[in-house]
Amino acid sequence: MTYWILFLLCFVIYLLPCLPLKTLQGNTKGWLTNVFVFFGLLFHAGLIYQTTFLTGIDLNFANSLLITSWIGVLLYLLINASNHYKGFEFFTLLPAIFILFINPFMSGHNYLHETFSTMAILHIVFALLGYSFLAFGALFSIFLLYIEQNVRTKKIHTKILSSDTSILQLEKNLFRIYWLGFLLLTITLISGSFFSDEVFHTTLILNHKLIFSVCAWFIYAILLLGRILFGWRGKKAIKFSLVAFILLFLAYFGSKFVFEILLP
Questions:
Q1: Which residues lie below 8 Å from residue 261, measured CB to CB, with a gap of 6+?
Q2: Among 171, 177, 198, 252, fewest CB within 10 Å belongs to which?
């Protein structure tokens, strides 16, 4: 019962800022959205406790997505506290709503063993943080792409998607997110080579997960190096980042989906 109460409260609170309600129009929408998001995060955290930590640490596919989406919404609240990015809530709350919606339909468990060392648990924490930052960066880059198109073509009404800051500042913020995500991903790959046997019950082997992860790391490295050396920006940078994130998503969540959902 507690699960469903938290689920419904979180679902409705995240959904409200995305609806065309009169009370959420004009200058009041920004701070009202942040209020909704704040309380949504509280219920979201309670839901994560119910599904992931109540009977042990269960990091199955659905719960990992739930944690990733919570971190993404938290980052949205932190980065958009001053309401500079109008319409960005659609890019963060709608994916979170979808993840919430599918959570009750996902079965299977993936409990962490009680004998896991502190370093192995830290590896998992860094991995989830890295994936969350880079997922948020992918959403932010799509928002930036729409803002750029709106500036050039005016196809999208500025009341829906707009930014009080310049595109250059948007790109600086985006690359700060990517630098943090890249650092966390680097730590994850390095630590994974030491704790693979403990976490995954197998020695480090060359499989699709490792290949996709390393390929994603190289693409992010090329993107960040290109930014430093050649000032890469705009569509080129966004395309690189999205390709890298797709590979990273396939490496972690794709693997979990296949082994836990399709082939339990």
A1: 61, 106, 107, 108
A2: 198
pLDDT, one tens digit per residue, over 12-70 is 999 998 887 655 555 566 788 899 999 999 999 999 999 998 888 888 888 999 999 99
Tens-digit pLDDT profile for residues 156-207: 555 678 888 888 899 999 999 999 999 999 998 888 776 655 555 555 566 7
Residue ranges of alpha helices (H) inside the chain are: 2-15, 29-48, 61-79, 88-102, 118-153, 167-200, 208-230, 234-249, 255-257
Residues 147 and 238 in one domain: yes
Q: How far is CA 144 from CA 16, 87, 137, 174, 219, in A?
A: 23, 11, 10, 9, 20
Entry pTM = 0.89
Number of domains in the chain: 2
Answer whether 68's CB lies under 8 Å from 135's CB.
yes
**For tokens 């339990």, what's the residue?**
264
For residues 103 and 133, membership in a common domain is answered with no
Which range of residues forms the domain containing residue 161? 118-264
Query: Which neighbouring-strand residues pair with 58?
Result: 111
Q: How many residues can be counted in the chain?
A: 264
What backbone torsions phi and psi does residue 96 show, to the nearest 5 degrees? -65, -40
Q: In this structure, are 209 and 174 located in the same domain?
A: yes
* Separation of alpha carbons 264 and 257, rounded Å: 9
207 and 86 inside one domain: no
**CB-CB contact of 2 with 50 (8 Å):** yes
